[in-house]
Amino acid sequence: MTLKVDMGFDGAGGAALVDLEELLATRLLVQGNSGSGKSHLLRRLLEKSAGQVQQIIIDPEGDFVTLAGPHGHVAVEAVDYSVSEITHFARRCREHRTSVVLSLEGLEMEGQMRCAAAFLMGLFDAPREHWFPALVVVDEAQIFAPAAGAEVSEEVRRASLGAMTNLMSRGRKRGLAGIIATQRLAKLSKNVAAEASNFLMGRTFLDIDMARAADLLGMERRQAESIRDLARGTFLGLGPAIARRPVMLKIGPVETSARSSSPVLVPLPDAPAGDMREFLLAGLEDAAPLTAPAPTPRPQPATLVLEELARLPVTPIAEDLPEPVDPEPVMAASLRAIVADEEATGKTTAVLFQDFQVRCRMHGLRHTPLDLAGFTRRFAAARAGIFEGLEDEWAPALEAGRRVPDDMLGAFLLIARAASENRPCPSDQEIALVYGTSSLGRARRVLSYMEERDIIVARTDLSGRRSITIPALGWTTQPTEP
């Protein structure tokens, strides 16, 4: 079955049609400066194909959430959810074939990139039985697939770029048809842009962007100037889903509108009678005066400070001071309480460290002997069920785990504890729980990471029972229970 999407009018006044089935197989790139009508084009495409195919929109500005009313899209504000919840949400979208709008409004650029990467990987990693066809629309794609280094961490940039590359290069086999829109081709990664076979080029003014647009449309360089003269809402289109030769498309009207709109001129308010200067400055004498910053005191010579300290009376030590608190039992009790708290799973290490300090003070320990790094390793051991004896019986295990990243230390100590106590090897579920995830695939990747670096050696017998050896300690777990 062939479905045609009515996008408006072509240069001859006829209907401008886009082959939806061909679009699912060949992907689409939309380019145009701010105000050229990219969002209007995407909205027209989504409205006219709603009900024919699942639609998934990654919306940096929250403009497309208005599709939720008349067309039944589920709008989700990403700022309210964690990364793991966003990944789980993506899998549910594929399973139930629900059209959704993921609004990234309210997140900084790094947060938007991290969220988009997790969401796209969740779509990409869905089980094969859920590989239904879907349009995946990414507005402002240059944010998520930058051509050069963005002002974010390298880890986040690579994750986002990798997810966008997967969408455009490998998504077709999984039913995911990428539709990406960008303000500037020069800012978009070439590896991502090159995977599209359909192009809609709107108004642009920079020479480098006009030249790239002309190359993609198969136009000569001298014809690139025509891209600068395109009216708002008018695009040059090319591709198997649009036309075999460049054609002009005038995008038709849409039913819904964005929450934000272009600025329009409105009449200025009538000026109040009298002198405007007096009106603007009226009442300023009642405003609180700005206080000048206190002058910085000049430092006193060290000899004067020592003389003043010597003249101070010596205060005798009170005999009724409380006995000093032993920190080890207090820290162990606090760690047990945090591990038992179900809400602690989704909290960051910094937040848990503050919780740990508060619990220690409640038990009478004013100053904990642990800094953030020390607490991270101690908490990893606590997740493995080791609360005491880290400097004694478990010191060899901690020494053997120095090559393990802090976030994997808990999984390593869980294995070491099972081997030390001659118990069966922990299951993937137990390792995932200690690692702080519900994904069994991540638990297996943790084991693969440690095995590749010869930290552990895993053995699976013919009955499928796994046992793990820690060569540095000479400890081996019992095989897993059948």
TrEMBL record:
UniProt cross-references to SUPFAM superfamilies, sorted A to Z: P-loop containing nucleoside triphosphate hydrolases
Key words of the record: ATP-binding, Nucleotide-binding
Pfam families per the UniProt record, alphabetical: DUF87
GO MF term (any one): ATP binding
Protein name (record): ATP-binding protein
Superkingdom of the organism of origin: Bacteria
Segments forming domain Helicase HerA central: 16-72
